[in-house]
Amino acid sequence: MFPLFALSACQQPSPLASSSMTPALPSLSLHRNHVTPGTNPLFVRVTFTETTTYEQAIASLQAVGQREYPWTCDDLRTPVPPLLAERRAAFARSHFLLIDYPSDAQMYQLATFPQVTSIDAYPSYMCP
Description:
- This protein is an alpha+beta fold and about 130 residues long.
- It has one domain (about 40-128): 2-Layer Sandwich (Alpha-Beta Plaits), CATH 3.30.70.
- It has five helices and three strands; from the N terminus they run ααβααβαβ.
- α2 packs across α5.
- The longest helix has 11 residues, at about 85-95.
């Protein structure tokens, strides 16, 4: 019995194996997700359709275990994020939200959501 346990313990789980994920067609996910698997970007920009509300976008992030990164540059002037009204207004103009340290599985799952139009690495830069 021990060798069987040791063998199963050495097997690597699939990064996409998750009971909570319902994979879409791989081509659809790959078409929307422009981040190369395994690159581990610090920030990712998730762009939503123009009809997606801020609340729907936030719910999408939460569904994959992520939350909005409220700043758009590195040199944080304050540890307090912008006000909710400011974040909603910025989303209404840009239709994107940032997330930080996403896993490949989280990006794959987000790319399957119909309200997500693209997922892209987002370069960090100093605030003006």
